[in-house]
Amino acid sequence: MGDKFTEGLFMSFIDDAERIILGDTVGDDVPLVSYTIREKSSPKPQQRETPLDALYNEASSCHACTGYESRSIFVRPIVKKEPKVLFIAPYPEGSVIFSPESLKIFRAWWKLSLLLEEGEWALTTLVKCPVPGFDRTFCDACRSILRTEMAEISPEAMILLGHDTASYMLGKSENMEALRQKRFVVNHIPVFVTYSPRDYIQDPSLKKAIWSDMLFIRRQIGTEDRSS
After folding, report:
1. Is 226 domain-assigned?
2. Separation in Å, CA 29 to CA 11, 36, 44, 91
3. Model's pTM, two decimal places?
4. C-alpha 95, offset from chain centre
């Protein structure tokens, strides 16, 4: 009853407005017009924000270190659904985690060398903002973000790319030869060390060593029986 009354009142307001506009206040010369009130369509449900989305949205305005001063973009990690392996690089190469050249090498590593499927890997960095070079101060400022990533992603294994990443994550000062092809544990997660794509670009002679690392890691994460 209330809805019908409101609708009729609304229609009369519209008719009165038309009469006034046309200069006919009596309403003798203006034909009645029928109107249809359509129900307002329900808005599409918004996609629920994940804990990692919330983390990155908050981190994108972080001022915990001086790295933000040159930040023009916050480089979001590549996170797959329930990844088997989490790769960790030291810091973004510009506005992306890897330059096109580094990305091409990285694709070959996870797909052809470790025999991982598309949804079985994720990629993040110690430092989230583009910075000129490795600095432990930057890493310390982003440490809580990385801890949350590790807890939310919960990978079966982590691969540390490059000496800077390995040294910081493991708290060890040994050279790469002493860190490669060994199994470490961080927060109950098995950890392995190899060179970064940038290392290979700067020194292609590392190809044999990197391939040897891939074979070792492949055995450790249980993908060696997959056909390449």
Report:
1. no
2. 17, 22, 45, 76
3. 0.74
4. 13
**Cα(25)–Cα(47) distance, integer angstroms:** 52
**Per DSSP, what are the bridge partners of residue 85?**
121, 157
pLDDT for 182-198, tens place per residue? Answer: 999 999 999 999 999 99
**Are 22 and 58 members of one domain?**
no
Tell me, yes or no, whether 101 and 139 share the same domain. Answer: yes
Dist CA 153 CA 122 (whole Å): 8
Asked, for residue 74, whether it belongs to a domain, the answer is yes
Determine the pLDDT at residue 118: 87
Please state whether beta strands 121-125 and 157-161 pair in parallel, antiparallel, or not at all (unpaired): unpaired
Question: Is 171 in the same domain as 208?
Answer: yes
| Residue 202: inside a domain | yes
Residue 76: exposed, middle, or buried by beta-carbon count in 10 A (0-12, 13-18, 19+)? middle
The mean-pLDDT minimum among 3-7, 44-48, 114-118, 196-200 falls in 3-7
Tokens 């609304």 label which residue? 10
Whether residue 117 is found in the same domain as residue 7 = no
Domain, as residue range, for 12: 1-38
**Residue that is written with structure tokens 């109950």 in the block:** 188
Whether residues 4 and 66 share a domain: the answer is no
- The mean of the pLDDT values for the chain is 82
| Range list of β-strands (E), 76-119 | 85-89
Query: In this structure, what is the dihedral angle of CA atoms 177, 183, 184, 187, given to the nearest 10 degrees?
Result: 150
| Residue count (the chain) | 228
Tokens of 72: 């023009």
